[in-house]
Amino acid sequence: MTIEVGKFTLFEFPPYFFFAVLGFAVSISCYMILLLVSNTKVSKKNLLLCLFAAIGVLLGARLFGCLTNITIALYTKKKIGMDVIYRAGLVYYGGLFGGVLFYWIGIRVLFKNHYDISLINSMAVSIPLFHVFGRLGCLFAGCCYGKEYHGYGHINYIRDCVTTETFPVQLLESIMELGIFCFMLVTYCITVKNTNKNMFITYFILYSIGRFFMEFLRGDSNRGYFGMLSFSQIVSIVAFMISIFLFLKRGIKNEIC
After folding, report:
1. Does 257 have pLDDT greater than 50?
2. C-alpha to C-alpha distance for 246 and 234, rounded to whole angstroms
3. Residues of 211-226 as b/e, b for ≥16 C-beta within 10 angstroms?
4. Residues of 162-200 as b/e, b for ≥16 C-beta within 10 angstroms?
5. What is the pLDDT of residues 172-206, one digit of tens each?
6. How far apart are CA 184 and CA 126, in angstroms?
7. DSSP secondary structure string, 37-77?
8. Between the CA of residue 212 and those of 107, 207, 215, 235, what are the distances in Å?
């Protein structure tokens, strides 16, 4: 596959925008269907929660982009200017944290303490489905690309008339997210009314492990490396440790109760 970066479009739309919108539509549809499966009433409040989450995703992704640039500048002892904001991209981890935070705030504001656990778990299951499409957008946009690779299935990216052969890590991560989605969907259907199961924790554990190892196949260095680890790998370690702590804490609390 050969992709000319910056010139490839889908139905006249930039590939990342096209797949992001498609992924949002599919994941929200999945979210609504799962609410119906759990016999949770679908109302305007549910749609407002999706809006809360979308705002959190955009703000968090941009904020993490700025944070990444600032961290790299500090680590490399470079001057921090306004370009750290202007040149900041959208970081998935930031969008993930921002979306979950704003979604939780929305639940607390709209439902107070009277909400069904299905509101939490239905959104958690839908998140990897969104990222399945998001990484396809990265694949065709030429961002988040893999290491130089000349074997079977490599991607030819043309940048400034220069062709590079890279490993299709975006496609691999998309497949990984699809696997996580399928696992969480089956788990959701089995434990649909288990009030002690928070599937956000499940997702963070699974994704942080997968993302940590996926980073070894990445070839773009603009995310910054700190020793042998990338910024995303450090975030993955922190996310994994916090998720395990919350998982164990919930288990101990349930045993006591």
Report:
1. no
2. 19
3. bbebbebbeeeebbee
4. eebebbbbbbbbbebbeebbeebbebbeeebeeeebbbb
5. 999 999 999 999 999 998 887 666 678 999 999 99
6. 9
7. HTTPPP-HHHHHHHHHHHHHHHHHHHHHHHHHHHHHHHHTT
8. 30, 8, 6, 9
User: Each residue of 211-248: pLDDT tens digit?
Assistant: 999 999 998 866 666 778 888 899 999 999 999 998 88
Report the 10 Å Cβ neighbour count for 136: 21
Q: Which of 9-23, 75-89, 142-156 has the lowest mean pLDDT?
A: 75-89
Give the CA count within 13 Å in the CB-facing half-sphere of 55. Answer: 12
Element (H, E) at 231: helix 231-256
72 is written with which tokens? 């790299």
Crossing angle for the helix pair 169-190 and 199-214, to the nearest 10 degrees: 160
- The span from the CA of 15 to the CA of 10, in Å, is 6
- For residue 92, CA distances in Å to 26, 147, 154, 164 come to 18, 19, 23, 24
Cα R_g (the chain), whole angstroms: 19
Higher pLDDT, 93 or 10: 93
- Output the CA torsion 54→57→59→63 (10° steps): 180
Cβ pair 65, 94 in contact under 8 A: yes
Q: Would you list the DSSP string of 134-165?
A: HHHHHHHHT-S-B-B--STT-EEEEETTEEEE
